[in-house]
Design brief:
The structure holds two protein chains of two kinds. By secondary structure, chain A is an alpha+beta fold. Helix content of chain A is 16%, strand content 40%. Chain A has a nine-stranded mixed β-sheet, with no helix packed on it. A five-stranded antiparallel β-sheet of chain A has the order 2-1-5-4-3. A four-stranded antiparallel β-sheet of chain A has the order 14-15-20-17, with no helix packed on it. By secondary structure, chain B is an alpha+beta fold. The chains are: A alpha+beta, B alpha+beta. The interface between A and B is large, with 109 and 115 residues.
């Protein structure tokens, strides 16, 4: 298909030329060009690839067309398709697009087609500020919020009545300072700093319950509402646990390297301070075990399913939000099961069985048992479905990581401090 | 921005004046625009609610005209709220790709609107449509031109940004002027905007290139982190080949890197990778030679091989050991912490830098960071895995410890699964193959058939690469032949075919088994593979082969083309080996083929008939038919599609696509000999700007004989020679280097010794002068800038001389004046000449960083041979140290001629204690027990803090860590300068700028553990003073207090 390429004449190098937002149904609902306009027909190549991929997450992130390259991400059921003309590190673009999506989420609470359409003007203003001539300009949420205020219900009401704007009245100074992530003149009556240590267990367990692979992915999310220019130092009881870390740009690498403390001037509001990775397998406790037996009979077009979940290494805490998801083979038509606890649901279209257990009671282990009926005449499926486990343990960081203390310098007041720990199942899979 | 809004009143007037004209134009325009109009009711809608529900597929309603009139009216109204509403709707139109160009005149006059949001939206509109409406766009230019002169830097910047975004050729000169002006703006933010504007102008008018390069050159010299990323981006887009512009800024860019914003980091790192490839030598040059024979298959890439070939004759002669250029090391060191960045693009950029530039032994550190990225979004995973796949071929060991991180989950998208499989296959070796195969077995059971097919291929590749498991794999694959899923079977057949080709004799039963499969398998590729196998090895299955041909002849017409071709091949081969049984069948097949629809098949049939069936016409070739058809065919090599992809710069788009993308800058090959490294030397920052220069000059006039020449020309000169030395890098360089440096520092020291008396006087004079100067000038500022200047210089110098301690001595001696104003370094005796039988040894703490090991104290040792014979083999033996302490010995001194002296440097890690280091000093004849005990003040190095940092750090070291002491100042401690001098002479600390002249502050870090040591001396009326020492190590603190007290009360 011919692409009307009106931009061939300027072959200047530019990172991101245009951006198209496309929903799951294939409607192109927003376009933004940072240079001359590129016809939206270029997206036909994307649609072609989209069709070929069947699943949205199988669309190749980089698509080649005769004159352009399309680099896209899929997030919140929206494809962010950017048009590139020349060599650029693909990760650069991908990372930027994710930053755009995160900014939308930050501004509108969620990043969905409807919120983007509702706030199309703010979206446009944001895109204008985030890229200049295709090169990232202001991507820090703190600065953007000074330039363009996020919508609130109250303000949008006031705006419709008075016609006033959501653009900042004062000029932002954050871009000028050496700490571009924090705006100046922050003031709170209640000064508080909260940290959430969230750990996710990624694991693959084999049929017999042995750990094939396990690691912990942790993040420390912060919500810091402190006046002025506080300089914080967060230290751990056991920093040696942290095998591999990555930081928000505000963290001083040098101090981490020399003293194993996190020293930083925080951005205002919510942000992810750091993420870490604990790969030593002996350190990774597996909180639950799963006994399962899924079998299909040679004859009679049926099968049996029997799953029991029990606590393993829970460190004395309660396992909550336990959900077992099974992707069934295509020939499974329906499931007739009996759950001793929680509810189950089998979707015959997506072939996904979801068993929502809830809280795990160690005295009375939840069990799901019953029969599966298969498409008649179809051969017995050879593959065995694998189980995905989701769970949550409050007040526990499964790695044993503990925050020792938080110190503040540079400001006089006494902030309110808090740390919360949560362990979740990440990509936790049991093979059968 | 408010201000900018108020500015262009007359711009409005201009617009109003033109309005009549434009309206006429517009009428002419609108009919043209109407046809491509989409959902018209969009424009007539007043309720924002309605806007929302509109979809691109919406059907047309009301006319264009009315909607536009509406909007125009709103834009013309006096109410900002109406204007805003109109602009919002127009922007919404643009966002949805609808044409709104005919509103241009109505919109452009609002460029002067006072409402900031209206204005912003007008900018959005303007940038979008200016190109199409050039004449009208010019009306807005004056607004921006005025904005460029605004006192507020943000307004200047935003004016430049919009002005440069308007793609109208006529304003090129205006833009050029604006960029030039902004490039020398006071505000770094405006300069950053100027850097951003450069590529815009370049794309608008490439003829401006030369002028723009001048601006780039200027901005490259900028020292702020804000500008660095943007200007390198401009450099990459306008003149990436002008590598000469980078030389002078190279070290600065390396040092600024960590503080540059993340997007700039990526651009700078990529550029520096290319730069380093042109300027430094291949750090792996020697290893790749060694490997060439043993591991060539795995490691040597094309370019390396080529290089090796070239290098070979040279090696035969004599290979110089490789010495890394300190600048090369600087780049590696300064990028390493960025592996911890949260931004995947930055991590990838550092990873590719290490992959392309680091010595083999150091590349491994990137693996962990790359594995971490695998947890990120699937798009990031996709790109990272592609790069890991390439890397894992060349440097397999690097990812082996992380093997399990590449295990596949059933929930991974297929494209990720396939890439992980690729990496796992690349990582397979004799030791881990059993684990990997077990893992592969679970994958074969997956529901994702494409993935299963890829897994089977992966097993095949493992089997070809690792001989030990070939049979196991083959057996496993044969079992898969009975799989219910046809795709699985087909894929297995294809892979088995490839494996069998390696050793067909042993596996005739497998071939038989596969012959049976032909009845059931429908996948053409698999059928073709089986037929080929039977044909190729028909001698192993003499009974079955003709029967298969019989069956195939029956179904020939219904087969796919590739199968038909293989049937013909099979027939031909059978005809040649077993013509008795298959002659008729072959004739039959060839006849069928003769009338096939596909010309390839007809062609093949004709060709084969001529070859194998002897007729009168058939030429000499038919004699060789058997040789032609049944020649031994080499087994296929199953290799990774990622092999040799590393000739593309990793992390690049071109690498991902495995094809050159437009604008891709080839990664240059390493040069065979390094270009002149001195091009990166930077002139020492202008001394004239800081007060110390004045001091120096005055001093020079007074004492022309004292170290002046070194003071002025030393840094640049010695830096040059230093680099040359490291480049020539011969093994003996260290010895000769030490000699040189020895004589250098020796002469200076001897000078100091003899003139020490004079010096004191001179210094006093100098102090008086300084005092005068201070009074006349704004003292604080001068001092601060001096401090900064010094820091800067030292920083740069230390870059130059990094890792070469001998150069360090030469250069740093120059700085001893600025660092330690006392100038005189105290010498201690290590071995008296009488006790040492003519060998006198003295040592001093040179106060220079000991570069091979930064946490060691550098001890400069001077040997003087007072005998009349040579002393040989001077070296250290048998050090007896407290636990934790370490010594880094100096290189053995081969010969010390009679009457000569030599100076060497050794490093001692005292573990921040004043315990003595005992060791034996040996000559070729004698051994002497000696010991070095450091004064506490020598256990630290200066730390450069700002006043604020100092206060902050001091705040952290209160309580137990703070020691307060009152004292009476000695008679000579009349002013600040004496105090500074005394303190810095006692301890190796640096002065911290301070607002009050009653206070002197000093900061340092302990050498071994890096604990901060903060010293404050507060003078009071009447000779009293208070000394405060803050240090986490209380013992050090106490001892330091004692020493300083003594120094000050003398």
């Amino acid at each position: 298909m011919p692409v009307l390429d009106i931009t061939l004449k300027d072959n200047a190098l530019i990172m991101i030329h245009s951006l198209f937002l496309i929903n799951n149904a294939g409607d192109l609902f927003l376009e933004k060009h940072w240079k001359s306009v590129i016809s939206r027909s270029v997206c036909d190549y994307f649609f072609e690839a989209r069709e070929k991929a069947v699943e949205p997450d199988n669309v190749p992130p980089v698509i080649r067309t005769p004159h352009h390259y399309l680099i896209n991400i899929y997030r919140e059921k929206i494809f962010f398709v950017s048009v590139i003309q020349t060599e650029v590190p693909p990760l650069f673009v991908i990372e930027f697009l994710h930053r755009v999506a995160e900014t939308f989420q930050d501004y509108f609470g969620e990043c969905s087609e409807s919120t983007i359409k509702d706030n199309v003007v703010i979206v446009y203003e944001l895109l204008e500020e985030m890229l200049d001539n295709g090169f990232p300009l202001a991507t820090e949420s703190n600065i953007l919020k000074e330039l363009i205020r996020p919508p609130t219900i109250l303000r949008s009401m006031v705006n419709t009545i008075t016609g006033s704007s959501n653009v900042g009245e004062t000029l932002p100074t954050g871009q000028l300072s050496t700490i571009p992530w924090r705006r100046a003149g922050v003031k709170y009556t209640n000064n508080e700093a909260y940290f959430d240590v969230v750990e996710e267990i990624d694991a693959i367990l084999d049929k017999s319950g042995t750990t094939v692979f396990a690691e912990i992915q942790g993040v420390i999310d912060a919500c810091v509402k402190l006046s002025g220019m506080p300089d914080l130092t967060l230290s751990f009881m056991n920093p040696r646990l942290l095998d591999d870390v990555s930081f928000h740009p505000c963290v001083r690498y040098k101090r981490w390297e020399s003293e194993r403390v996190i020293s930083f001037v925080p951005p205002d509001g919510n942000f992810q301070l750091m993420s870490y990775h604990i790969s030593a397998q002996n350190l990774v406790a597996i909180p639950v075990y799963v006994k399962q037996n899924i079998s299909f009979f040679e004859t009679g077009s049926s099968g049996r399913l029997d799953i029991t979940v029990g606590p393993k290494q829970t460190m004395g805490k309660t396992v909550e939000g336990l959900v077992v998801t099974v992707h069934m083979p295509k020939v499974v038509l329906s499931a007739n099961l009996n759950a001793t606890q929680g509810t189950y649901n089998y979707d015959p279209v997506t072939k996904i069985l979801v068993w929502d257990i809830g809280k795990l009671n160690p005295q009375k282990l939840p069990n799901l048992k019953g029969s599966l009926s298969l498409q008649s005449g179809a051969p017995k499926p050879e593959e065995n479905p694998s189980l995905n486990i989701d769970l949550k343990i409050q007040q526990l960081a499964i790695s044993g990581l503990k925050v020792n203390r938080l110190d503040m310098y540079g400001e006089k007041y006494k902030p309110f401090k808090g740390v919360k720990y949560v362990t979740k199942a990440g990509k936790f899979q049991v093979r059968t | 921005m408010q201000k900018l809004l108020q500015l262009p009143v007359n711009a409005v007037n201009i617009v109003k004046g033109v309005q009549g004209v434009t309206q006429g134009q517009e009428e002419a325009l609108s009919p043209v625009l109407t046809p491509d109009s989409g959902p018209q009711n969009w424009y007539s809608a007043v309720q924002p609610e309605e806007l929302r529900h509109l979809r691109s597929g919406g059907t047309g309603g009301g006319g264009w005209g009315r909607g536009h009139d509406d909007l125009k009216e709103m834009l013309d109204s006096n109410k900002d709220s109406l204007k805003l509403e109109a602009m919002k709707r127009i922007v919404a139109m643009i966002a949805r790709g609808k044409n709104a160009s005919d509103l241009f005149p109505a919109v452009v006059k609002n460029v002067a609107c006072k409402n900031i949001e209206v204005k912003k939206l007008v900018y959005v509109y303007l940038v979008r449509y200016a190109e199409e409406q050039q004449d009208l766009a010019l009306l807005s230019i004056s607004t921006f031109q005025r904005g460029l002169k605004d006192p507020n830097q943000l307004i200047r910047a935003s004016a430049l940004r919009v002005l440069s975004s308007i793609r109208v050729t006529i304003i090129v000169p205006i833009m050029m002027l604006a960029i030039k002006e902004a490039a020398s703006d006071m505000s770094p933010y405006v300069r950053k905007t100027a850097a951003h504007a450069i590529p815009k102008l370049h794309s608008l008018d490439p003829e401006q290139k030369d002028q723009l390069i001048e601006v780039i050159e200027k901005l490259l010299a900028d020292k702020t982190t804000l500008v660095a990323g943007s200007v390198v981006m401009a450099f990459e887009e306008v003149c990436p080949d002008r590598i000469d512009l980078i030389h002078k800024n190279y070290r600065k860019l390396c040092n600024l890197l960590i503080d540059v914003e993340e997007w700039g980091q990526v651009v700078i790192i990529n550029m520096l990778t290319r730069y380093a490839r042109t300027q430094f030598l291949n750090p792996n040059i020697n290893e790749s030679l060694l490997e060439e024979n043993s591991e060539k298959a795995f490691y040597a890439s094309d370019d390396e091989e080529e290089e090796d070939k070239k290098a070979e004759p040279a090696t035969l002669a004599k290979r110089k050991p490789y010495v890394m250029d300190p600048d090369h090391r600087l780049l590696l060191r300064n990028t390493k912490p960025l592996l911890q960045s949260r931004n995947a693009a930055v991590v990838m950029a550092v990873a590719q830098l290490y992959f392309h530039l680091a010595p083999k032994a150091e590349v491994g550190i990137i693996a962990k960071a790359l594995v971490r990225l695998m947890r990120s979004h699937s798009e990031v995973q996709y790109v990272v895995l592609q790069n890991v796949a390439t890397m894992s071929i060349k440097r397999r060991g690097m990812f082996e410890p992380y093997l399990k991180s590449f295990y596949i989950r059933s929930t991974d998208p297929t494209q990720i699964k396939v890439l992980k499989l690729e990496v796992l296959t690349n990582l397979a070796n004799e030791t881990n193959i059993s684990t990997i195969l077990r893992e592969f077995q679970t994958y074969i059971k997956s529901m994702d058939k494409d993935f299963v097919a890829a897994s089977i291929q992966a097993i095949g590749r493992c089997a070809t690469n690792i001989g030990e498991v070939r049979d196991t794999c083959l057996n496993g694959l044969v079992q898969l032949l009975s799989n219910r899923d046809e795709l699985v079977v087909a894929e297995s057949v294809v892979v088995i075919k490839k494996l069998l080709q390696m050793q067909p004799e042993q596996h005739s039963d497998i071939i038989k088994h596969m012959a049976k499969l032909i009845d059931n398998i429908q996948v053409p590729m698999a059928r073709a593979s089986i037929l080929w196998l039977i044909g190729e090895y028909c001698e192993h299955v003499p009974k079955i082969a003709p029967d298969v041909l019989r069956k195939m002849a029956k179904s020939f017409t219904n087969e796919e083309d590739i199968v038909k071709l293989q049937i013909i091949n099979l027939a031909a081969k059978l005809y040649l080996t077993n013509s008795k049984q298959s002659k008729l069948l072959t004739q039959y097949v060839l006849n069928l083929a003769k009338y096939d629809q596909n010309y390839d098949i007809r062609d093949r049939a004709r060709f084969i008939r001529q070859l194998i069936v002897p007729t009168d016409k058939s030429g000499a070739l038919s004699k060789y038919a058997k040789k032609l058809f049944l020649a031994l065919k080499p087994a296929p090599v199953l290799e990774s599609p990622f092999k040799d992809r590393d000739h593309f710069q990793l992390g690049s788009l071109s690498h991902l696509l495995n094809a050159k993308a437009a604008g891709y800058q080839e990664l240059p090959n390493w040069p065979e000999s390094a270009p002149d490294p001195s091009v990166r030397n930077v002139e020492i920052p202008d001394w004239s700007k800081c007060s110390s220069r004045k001091d120096r000059k005055e001093k020079k006039v007074e004492k022309p004989f004292y170290s002046d020449s070194e003071g002025e020309s030393g840094p640049t000169e010695s830096a040059d020679s230093g680099n040359c030395e490291s480049d020539s890098g011969s093994g003996s360089a260290s010895a000769s280097g030490s000699d040189e440096s020895g004589s250098g520092s020796e002469s200076e020291e001897s000078g100091e010794e003899t003139e020490s008396d004079e010096e004191e006087e001179d210094e006093e004079e100098e102090k008086k002068k300084r005092k005068k100067l201070d009074k006349t000038k704004a003292k604080k500022q001068a001092e601060e800038s001096a401090e900064r200047c010094t820091i800067h210089t030292i920083h740069q110098i230390s870059c130059i001389i990094n890792f070469d301690q001998f150069d360090m001595n030469k250069i740093t001696s120059v700085f001893s004046q600025t660092l330690a104003p006392s100038g005189s370094i105290k010498m201690y005796e290590l071995l008296h000449r009488i006790k040492g039988e003519g060998l006198a040894v003295e040592y001093c703490f040179s106060r220079q960083p000991f570069s091979p090991e930064p946490n060691m104290v550098a001890v400069q040792i001077q040997f003087t041979n007072n005998t009349n014979s040579e002393t040989k083999n001077l070296h250290i033996e048998d050090p007896r140290l407290q636990s934790g302490m370490r010594i880094r010995e100096f290189a053995e001194i081969d010969v010390l001629a009679a009457g000569e002296s030599v100076t060497v440097v050794m490093g001692i890690d005292f573990c921040d204690s004043t315990q003595a280091a005992n060791f034996q000093l040996c000559t070729h004849t004698r051994k002497f027990f000696v010991s070095i005990q450091p004064p506490v003040g020598e256990l630290m190095t200066p730390a450069f803090l700002t006043e604020n940092d100092f206060k902050k750090e001091q705040g952290k070291l209160m309580g137990m860590n703070e020691i307060l002491e009152k004292l009476t100042l000695g008679e000579k401690c009349v002013n600040e300068h004496v105090i500074v001098e005394r303190v810095t002479a006692t301890a190796n600390l640096s002065r911290v700028p301070c607002g009050s002249d009653k206070e002197c502050r000093f900061a340092g870090k302990t050498v071994s553990s890096g604990c901060l040591v903060l010293v404050t001396v507060t003078t009071k009326e009447g000779g009293g003073a208070q000394l405060t020492v803050n240090c986490e190590k209380m013992l050090i603190g106490t001892m330091l207090v004692k020493d300083i007290l003594q120094a000050l009360s003398q």
